[in-house]
Write a structure and sequence with these properties.
17% helix; TIM Barrel; disordered N terminus; 973 residues; Glyco_hydro_2_cat; Immunoglobulin-like; Jelly Rolls; seven-stranded mixed β-sheet
Length: 973
Amino acid sequence: MNRRAQNTLSEKQDHRRSIVACLKDWTSLSAFLFAFLIFGACSKPQPESDSTTINLAGEWAFQMDSLDKGVSEKWFDTALPDKITLPGSMTTNNKGNEVGFNTPWTGSVFDSSWFKKPEYAAYRKAGNIKVPFWLQPVKYYKGAAWYQKTITVPASWEGNYRELFIERSHWETTVWIDTVRIGMQNSLGTPHVFDLTKQLTPGTHQVTIRIDNRIKDFNVGVNSHSISDHTQGNWNGMVGQLFLASRPLVHIGQVTLHPDVNNRQVRVRMVVNNAGKAPQEITIRMAAAASKDSANSLPPLEKKVVINGDSAKFEWTYAMGDTPLLWSEAHPDLYDFNINLTAGKSIEQKKITFGMREFSTQGTQFTINGKPTLLRGTLECAIFPKTGYPPTDEKEWERIFTVCRAFGLNHMRFHSWTPPEAAFSVADRLGFYLQVECSSWANFGSSVGDGAQIDRYLYEESNRVVNTFGNHPSFCMMTYGNEPKGENQNRYLGDFVKYWQAKDSTRLYTSGSGWPVIPENDYHVTSDPRIQHWEDGVKSIINSKPPSSAYDWSAIINQWKVPTVSHEIGQWCVYPDFKEIVQYDGALKARNFEIFQATLKANGLLHLADSFLLASGKLQTLCYKADIEAALRTKNFGGFQLLDLHDFPGQGTALVGVLSPFWTEKGYVTAAEYSQFCNATVPLARFSKMIYQNNETLKVPVEVSHFGDAPLDNTTASWQIAHADGREVFKGMFAQKNIPLGNGFALGVINQALGAIDKPSRLVLTVAVGERKNTWDFFVYPAALPKTAKDILITQQLDATAMKRLNEGGEVLLTLKKGSVKPEHGGSVAVGFSSIFWNTAWTHGQAPHTLGILCDPHHAALAEFPTQYHSNWQWWDALSHADAIRLDDVTPGLKPIVRVIDDWVTAQSLGLIFECRVGKGKLVVSSIDLVSGQGSRPEAKQLLYSLKQYMGSERFRPVVEVSESKIRNVLIN
């Protein structure tokens, strides 16, 4: 019997059962609505109770055991007083303790300011507890909890093997039947299955389950996404399929299918269990059929064998025909492998879905069935705000993977956790390459290789994971987990990799995500090839070097002989979308967003919340495009793993996704736009710089990264340069070419004089290769600028000369040198071009602290400096030579010409350029240095010219009056 396929109960029936159970216990309307939201969103069909199964979904007796007295008081021999509905968690059932100041969270809190700073005092009070470092559960509990249900076993089960199946329990599970302790299991990533044959006799029994979600014998690491409050939450309960099953005494155990593509066959390894232990002659019949065409079956293979003892292992080879269908990203063709086991009068059937595929390496590239491929991946960090635990239904995973595909991805890494069966099944169907991890981030109080129990546990857990999910073709890669710690980690992880290489060659193995890079690895996962690293601050490529798209990571990966996957690239933040708050209508609430929203409102900026979101989102997208294209430009690269396509709500609130935690778009980039630069086929342009003057010639080598299903024959490629409004300026064709699989394939060089661009312009280069296109903004300014009509005093100090001009009613442009603003008035804000990396709380205030600019692109002051409302490459120079100014310290409510968006935690009103009246005169203050080194800074030269033109016009009419002392107060000199 296929216990994972026994889903005959409709979702509507299960939905109604859940609501009815909740109404029995929760009489209030609010409790009913809570249950409706949770179970309506995440219910999963359970197996219908029949002659061979007893569905355990529904109402259970329940009791918390915070004092750990349940075992000594023999709660398994008493009736528990409370009620709970399963599948579910304590949190989804509104069970546990109120969140408070002393809640014993699971996870590191790097920024402890919530516990002591006065600005959080209101959120530390009972009744108004709100934490900023992750999503907040409606109730919290860490400890033992007891679940109990009375069941009746039919007489027909006599003489059969009987088991309890819990698809996902969190996490240490101890089972009693009546008063007999059956045993304990503690897998974090696989089902808990208990043999109940001896105790579960026909008649009425009491099933009692004790679940403990505390770190006990082994420590996977408090930040592991399998257990941490940073992500899914440290929940207590049972989810997914939950049932008792009766099976023949002689039944099918572990079946491992190892496809051999080269020899067009499958090696079948099978364990047959014999609960009766008496010798038996059995018949095993095997046959494979294409999943999409079950009528097209391959010839069966029949074996008669004798089993002695309680189990036996067998191995056979099954021929897959002359031209088996091969599984890949482009063609996710699957087979159903059907097994019939006959022992006497008993028959058991099992169906296993698998794929014929060879996921391997060739030099520094991955291959799928001998063809090169490049991993375009994102992390999945167990982020499920509705429930606080992962979905076990295929419908939800199909939605997630479909979104990922629309954004051009073909790969997903499960960071320090293992997903349920449904995720593998959907990835199989849709053609996704998965990296699975054994539920551990052994750091922050944990380590590997130092002799602790985690060392043994990882071998046990990895075997459970492979035994449970190893037949899925999508399961291509495995590692112990994330970023390990331990003096002996290299030796331990090297042995771990070698163990699995020898045991199962159907997938690839590496030591750990992030590190270490060791000789045993099939592939490396390292952060070396990305444009921003931890502790880089504003010294990274994107913040310290003028914009270009000419660099790649060849020098890094060429030092190794195996594929390199860039670890957790991106981590670019966006401003919170406060419209999401209402979507957190389940187990986890966005109290962190409520804090940030209240801070923004208190600072008088709430009306700009959506503008901050969209402007910072455009910059975030630009940063991700730069990161991804650098990977695609790297010849023979292995791939990348984004952190992340969607937001990470923990670790201080890391809003690093262009999608929300619900995998929905935020309004500033669509899947169609994102997939232009993230896809199987992507045109690429190597700009040596993004800013030009019109006396220069644009020289841009153009290439293509192509990892599609087959080479592109006689492909047409073209280029076009147009103004931002779409007016075409230049165009051209590349010679028609056959494009092979791989990257770094040159299409040609655009060589175009820019003399025809006589006005400052944002231009757009579009390169099309067949049906695929990609675009880049670049900027062209006049090499020679006319003199302004009016005499504007330009100064870098508010000195006597400047004050004399102002007092006489003149115009002054104060353009400050970087470092001129006092720390307490904005000078301490680390301004950078990129958006915030990860977040400032988790990184201890790592620079930059800003999220780009916000301006009105139609403001007259910017008429000669073409801009959008958000940062683009032409703002890199300004932001590299600027301090922020706290505008409220100049005068409350001051509206700048150009604003820089502050970190959402502090949400200050910060400006780069503002205007005001001082004395009888008119003043523009630019905290951007527009003077120093202007000969090599065409952007500064052009922005200065635009401001001067504005100040010399009738449109320059500032209305806000500011005293000289207020201006001087914010400046160091």
